[in-house]
Amino acid sequence: MPTTSVEIPEVLKQRIEEKVDEGEYTSNSDFIRYAVRRILDSEETLSPRAIIELNSRMDYDKDDLVDIDEV
User: Fold this and answer.
1) DSSP assignment of 2-71, as one string?
2) Domain ranges of the chain
3) Residue 60 contacts residue 53 (beta carbons within 8 Å)
4) Are 53 and 46 contacting, i.e. CB atoms less than 8 angstroms apart?
5) Handedness of CA 38, 22, 4, 8 (dihedral sign)
6) For residue 55, which of 68, 42, 43, 38 has the smallest C-alpha distance?
7) Which of 31, 34, 42, 64 has the fewest CB atoms within 10 Å, i.e. is most exposed?
8) Are 16 and 32 within 8 A, CB to CB?
């Protein structure tokens, strides 16, 4: 697996190591990979603003809309 080196403040390094020591992650690298995946996945999810924009461009009868809590 390719490696990338990054510099982080000591306080972040300590927090990552705490998570590893507590058993939440198997290594510092595991934590970093998880964090990067979360960021990349969140960018692929539509934000509320994007949903509003898409809805405004769609052609539908507003009377046909259902409140999400009713579904």
Assistant:
1) --------HHHHHHHHHHHHTTSSSSHHHHHHHHHHHHHHHHHSPPHHHHHHHHHHS---GGG---GGG-
2) 10-63
3) no
4) no
5) positive
6) 68
7) 64
8) yes
Torsion of CA 66, 53, 36, 14, to 10 degrees: -90
- pLDDT, tens only, 23-66: 999 999 999 999 988 888 877 777 778 777 777 776 666 666 66
Amino acid at 56: S
**pLDDT higher than threshold 60 for residue 71:** no
Tokens at 37, concatenated: 């995946």
- Is 26 within 8 Å of 17 (Cβ atoms)? no
Model confidence, pTM? 0.59
Q: Are 16 and 28 in contact (CB under 8 A)?
A: yes
